[in-house]
Amino acid sequence: MKFKKLLIGSILLLAIFTLAACAGNNDEPSQNEDADTETEQSADEANGDQSTESESDSMEGMDHSSSGEVPAELASAESPTYPIGSEAVMNAQHMKGMDGAVATIEGAYSTTVYSVTYTPTTGGEKVEDHKWVIHEEIENAEEEPYQSGDEVVLNADHMKGMDGAEAVIESAEDTTVYMVTYTDVQTGDEVTNHKWVTESELSPVK
């Protein structure tokens, strides 16, 4: 009788130890899963922060708005397609939030417009194919328009480090350029007296 009781007691103890061991094994993966989840969340948050910072850095130094002042020698367009006070849709991607925005024309001027590549005077990476700089924003500009490959010095402050920077002309076009005010389609912020948008980058409001 005593032998049976001992045998039953031994079996119960063995069962208890077995259940406890199984419970312990089940807990460990759960803890590891929690740790893995926290690690993944931290990595995602870090990547998100880096992405936001990168986007912000790419636009740093760009003056969306301006005072509206233009070079004294800049000639107003006689019969612009989009007169001052009219509206037009922008088809340009110089900056985020511009493409598709409805712009109000603040000024229309006849000039030569250039895309340029330059190294900012404030340091940093070279700015490739910046749009746009007009002929009157080139230091000691010659009377004749510049050609692709010509080297010039910029006299414009659209971006930090632009004024006084040495630049290479990438393209040149005689056209009407416009100064515009519009609402950024991404942020909802108003951009006033933005320089510049070319005539080919505008279309009628439907």
TrEMBL record:
Highest taxon above the source species: Bacteria
InterPro entries on file: DUF1541
Signal sequence bounds: 1-23
Keywords for this protein: Signal
DUF1541 domain span: 85-135, 148-199
Pfam (any one): DUF1541
Renumbered residue ranges of the record's region Disordered: 26-79
Chain intervals with Acidic residues compositional bias: 30-60
UniProt keyword Protein transport, yes or no: no
Protein name: DUF1541 domain-containing protein
